[in-house]
Design a protein that fits this description.
single chain; about 90 residues; extended
């Protein structure tokens, strides 16, 4: 949750730059995404480990394809980080 909150803060802090470089519409998207990240972090903080596990199981039951895709993407990113660390 801390990482999500930090990412939300970074996105929010850079929304003004996005306004200037790309346009206000995209800056608003960034602010919206930042709020969503911060709200998600707060929801995660409010739950205990058992509740998070149940939420994860329910997500996989409802959207197995998305869960597989997210796991594959995470595995790819971890493999890239490990490979880069070995270089």
């Amino acid at each position: 949750s801390g990482a999500l909150a930090s990412l939300g803060k970074i996105v929010a802090d850079n929304a003004g730059t996005i306004d200037e470089k790309v346009g206000e519409k995209y800056g608003d998207y960034a602010r919206q995404a930042a709020r969503s990240l911060e709200e998600t972090a707060a929801k995660i903080d409010a739950k205990d480990l058992g509740e998070l596990g149940e939420d994860a199981k329910e997500f996989v039951r409802k959207s197995p394809g998305v869960a597989i895709g997210m796991a594959a993407a995470a595995g790819f990113l971890i493999a890239r980080m490990v490979k880069k660390a070995d270089d």
